[in-house]
Amino acid sequence: MAGMCGIAGIADSRISPEQCAGALDRMKEALYHRGPDEVSSVVFPGLRAGLACCRLAIVDLVTGSQPISSEDGAVHVVCNGEIYNHRELRRLLERKGHRFRSSTDVEVIAHLYEEYATDCLAHLNGMFGLAILDGRRRRLVLARDRCGMKPLFHAVTPHGFLFASEPGALLATGLLPVEPDWAGLDTGLAAGFIPAPRSAFRGIEKLKGGDFLVVDEGQVRKGTYWRLRYRDEPRRSEREYAEEFESRLEDAVKSHLAADVPVGIFISGGWDSSLVAWKAARAYPGRLKTFSIVFPEHPRMDERPYSRRMAEFIGSEHHEVEFHASAIPQLLPKVARHLGEPCFTAPALLFYQLSWLASASVKTVVGGEGSDELFAGYGWLQSLTDVHYRLRRIVPRFLSRYPAQRVRSGPWRRLWRVLAAKDDLSADAEWHRCFTSREKDQWFSPNHRSERPDLLPLRLDPETLGTCRGRLQRRLALEFTRRLPEGILLTGDRMSMAHSLEVRMPFLDYGMVEFAAGLPSDMKRRGRQEKYLESLLAAQLPPEIARRKKLGLAMPTLECLAGPLRGFVREFLLDSNGVGGLLNRQKLESWLSRPPSGRGQELRAAWSLMMLQAWWNEYIGGR
């Protein structure tokens, strides 16, 4: 396997080969943190194109250099990610007459493309953002893995088509202006993340998970090779479902442990990471290293007893890093710079510190991301939520609109927003609401109000929605196709790769995803029991972990912002918003001068504004 990388390139170039090489050099410099082991680039003057890669070597340390080419040099590939079924694909291709020069998974992609063209993408099981430069057809193909684990950004410019693993690499070329995308930011403020294809920068788009893109003859064409589709299958016994779940998890964990460097595990003491760690300890030939973040200043959130118990259970070498509120002022600008866009839906600062801890010992870790979205681990998915939807059939919408815009406290605020939504899909999106349209009008300076798509980009793709039977599948689809890739996985990718660390996610293995898509809803959520099927396997964990309720990794926002950091919040926001600032300074001064209410919604809003302002300072305000 190639290992994690930063990839970049230019196609349909309208600049000289020397200028192309210079632009690739600048992109490599911007992506160096993603892959410091080997940095390379190639310009193809005859194709008016160039490819670059910063490689983090994890498997095939000697022959895994990129870009890698087919036997005749007509197909060139760079890939950020891991292809877990590359050995099976290699055997298939060898039977068809293909000959390989290396053992890297990236070379498999080149031969697979020769055999199947863009249909090759459906054969890949892994996490990836990849680029294929086809010399015969004189075209570039970009693709992103099904779940959106690895990112890929692109831009059409007067100088050519650009792509990279991070938006900062595109901006570093100097070939496109650094300007905010107000529509993307509007949805980001509403939802807490920016859904693909929009980004935070005008002219830069993200490729959706399961999509590919073809650039040839000056044209850009988009296609889809996979979409989440739920299936009705013949009912089986609970025992059969449980046995298949365990078998698939074991297979996924085993494939995700393959590496020529030591592998670690992120553990919290929750079910997801504990099950992965338990299966990994059984399959791994050596002693695993485990990593956790702890909160000595915030006992309510500290999972230290559970993570230590799990480490003891599997016999790992356990490491911890402490989170202190005093570190936030120093961490905030670093995190904003690496995130590349404002994102409030995942605790980026915590991922950053946890990745820093792990990177001192290992190059790759395995985590438990994806389980909640596949097997129903979030509180808003439970049956009690259906009360909101039953009330929608009774309470007239026009009566709900006024309180929906003005009620501030969390549960009542959400209820009125759900009741006021025009349809059930819009009501689903309201569960992710951060700022209302009225609040955005109040917070933004009048100079920075533009397009207002709000939560509309969160609506499900028709091909996915058409397979949803019941509210649970519809809500899970929203989590899986929107917040997971563009919020949680984006944050995880940026914070880990900031420290040259790869994170692998066995729950998002293609086999696990397809298994979950055919699983009956009552095997995912049963009454108030979250992740019912997973709970059957979790019963084999230590009792104190098996009987735990979900806590989730979250920033201690309320304690920090209402207490020791209140002065920093005021100074940071006011100093950043003079004349022509992003936020309405008059509104800020009025709001910050009031005594802290302690309301969770208000303090979470403050943290969201801090993340937004930090991003603005790093990318826009200082230019």
List keywords for this structure.
623 residues; alpha+beta; Glutamine Phosphoribosylpyrophosphate, subunit 1, domain 1; Rossmann fold; 6-stranded antiparallel sheet; 25 helices; 17 strands
Rg (CA only): 24 Å
Shape: globular
User: How many β-strand stretches?
Assistant: 17
Instruction: Please give the oligomerization state of what you see.
Output: single chain
Stated plainly, the CATH topology of the domain at 5-224 is called Glutamine Phosphoribosylpyrophosphate, subunit 1, domain 1
SS element count, helices: 25
How far apart are the first and last residues' alpha carbons, in Å? 39 Å
Q: Would you give an account of this structure?
A:
The protein has 623 residues and is of the alpha+beta class. Among the domains are: 220 residues, Glutamine Phosphoribosylpyrophosphate, subunit 1, domain 1; 171 residues, HUPs (Rossmann fold, 3-Layer(aba) Sandwich). The chain contains 25 helices and 17 strands. A six-stranded antiparallel beta sheet has the order 2-3-1-9-8-10. Strand 2 and strand 3 form a beta hairpin.
Quick recap:
The chain is α+β, with helices and mostly antiparallel strands and 623 residues long. The chain is built from 25 helices and 17 strands. A hairpin with a 2-residue loop joins strand 11 and strand 12.
